[in-house]
Amino acid sequence: MTFLLAPLLKYLIIIPFVGFAASLFIPARMERFIAWTSLATVGFHLICAWLFIAFWLFPGDFPTYQTTEFSLYESPDYQFFISFYFDKVTTVFLFIGSFLILLVTVYSSYYLHRDNGYKRFFNALLLFYLGYNIVIFSGNFETLFIGWEVLGICSFLLIGFYRDRFLPVKNALKVFTVFRIADMGLLFCIWLSHHLWHENITFIKLTNSEVVQAQIHSHMTISIVISLMILLAAAVKSAQLPFTSWMPRAMEGPTPSSAIFYGSLSVHLGVFLLLRAYPFWEHLTPIVILVAVIGLATSIVATLISRVQSSIKTQIAYSSTAQIGIIFIEVAIGLHDLALFHLAGNAFLRTYQILVSPSVVSYLIREQFYNFIPRLPNDKNRALRKLKYSVYLLSTKEFYLDSFIYFILWNPMKWLGRKLDGIGENTAFNFIAISTFIGVTCIYAKGSIPQSIYYLFPTFFAFVGLLMVIRSFTERRNAQFSWVLMVVYHFWITLAVSFYEESNFIEMAIYLGGVLLSGIIGFAALDRLKTLEGKIDWNDFQGHIYEHPDLALIFFLSCLGLMAFPITPSFLGVDLVFTYIHTEQIDFAIILAISYILLGLSVIRMYSRIFLGPHAKTYHEVPNRSS
Q1: Could you tell me which of 209, 214, 262, 216 has the C-alpha nearest to residue 237?
Q2: What percent of the chain lies above the pLDDT cut of 90?
Q3: Are 26 and 34 in contact (CB under 8 A)?
Q4: Rounded to 10 degrees, what is the CA torsion of 537, 538, 540, 543?
Q5: What is the maximum alpha-carbon separation in the chain?
Q6: Would you give the DSSP letter of residue 140?
Q7: pLDDT single digits (tens) 459-486
Q8: Which of 73, 423, 492, 514 could disulfide-link 570, Cβ–Cβ 3.0 to 4.6 Å?
Q9: CB neighbours (10 Å) of residue 340?
Q10: Is the pLDDT of residue 288 over 70?
Q11: CA–CA distance, 101 with 107 (Å, rounded to integer)
């Protein structure tokens, strides 16, 4: 049976891809055709998926399938290949996902009737389902990261679905900011895994307990860091402490997207990552304890917060987070069957709760009007009453989790950016030209430079590249200058990597190919917008997508290319760049990871401020800032 089923795995990825591609070419006015295309895609996928599961269950031995489909790049020291994997965990996530996506698609076809973004919603929904399937079928971290990136950008698109309003766009940016931390964790995990295993490790190889234990005992520090990075990515994706606050902000999108994304599927992918990597980190007792502690702390804090929320979606969000915290505990102590059952129950329940939330709110408003009786305090113990009031106040403030993320992520970058704000365009370009000349000269004069000094050059030039990204991050006057700095950053990373002997022209061309093309197209789009509007003011949201939707789409695709999204060869190039970094050069890796986060934030924030939000021109109806 294995030789029959294993080759079919790729078709469970191809079906949603074909449906998504087809939906792009349907005119926006043809609502019925859009809905039927989406229903046909997810319905056919459900039938195929459930038949696949039935044949997999039939023999009774529940085999594990691992396939290597094709290789994107190969060299003597490196291989990037697409691999698919199927086991019990995949089965549960496939069953849940295929059923709930069909349910939400049917619901959405009526719920969003005559909405201006009808086609846009179903495009994003099908793209999300494609990314979800890539993640759950992934056979290695590289394949998983492709789907992970797709899900991240779909989150931004669906949370900011009402793109002419201030709050949805602002919250979409907030969530995307936090998700970049998870991306960084996964990138670090991939980088260190290459050094630990000296190959593109597959998940089926991780199930070999003897080999894994031998590697862990030989490389304890690297193993712990890899496990911490996996936990970081999982905690962010599943809204565990201290990253819990993004979950209610993600509810700004339409009710169906809130249900499928943050009620059922996307938010549970952190649990999926822990389960998939469990054969590795189960041997590290401190990591097991940490997973359980994070889950316990999250379940307590999220429960307290959910009890005091006035918004039904926020209540559901924090309640779901609390349950996922308990699932983290179940995974940590090895109760995986219980964790999967618990996960399925939580996914179905939260989807139902969010989908019926509008009608429930309507009913409760009427019920409260006629039958509300305020509760009177009955605690005679003064100390206990003070404690309850303190916890209540902390809960209403969401334990200051949002402020904490702002403090550790935004404030340091803004402070440093203000220090660099005095660097003008001429100064920056002169510095870039002189430094590039010095860098190229040092590469060719390697023999006359002491090895101890030459070894520091990659980190130095990567740090200068980071300063460019930070300067771009805080630029508010000249959008084109900010864009050029982000493009030049990639050239500086190439310069930094060129100091390694093993670097070669082909791999650098792969890295820069997509970046250069995206940079040119994006700059041209900004120049065209400046010609049409006279100037580009991006101190606040401008909403130019209202008048220039085609230009906004072109610039958005350029942004994806510049941040190495998997639509250009630069996505592969980022992985190649990380392979050059030696394990003892942790400072270089940290600088590169921070730059990766900030670059993504800078380009998406630039797109959001220029094209999204309330339109700067008020010759038509414009939503209030608080809407």
Answers
A1: 262
A2: 22
A3: yes
A4: 80
A5: 87
A6: B
A7: 888 888 888 888 888 777 788 888 888 8
A8: 514
A9: 22
A10: yes
A11: 10
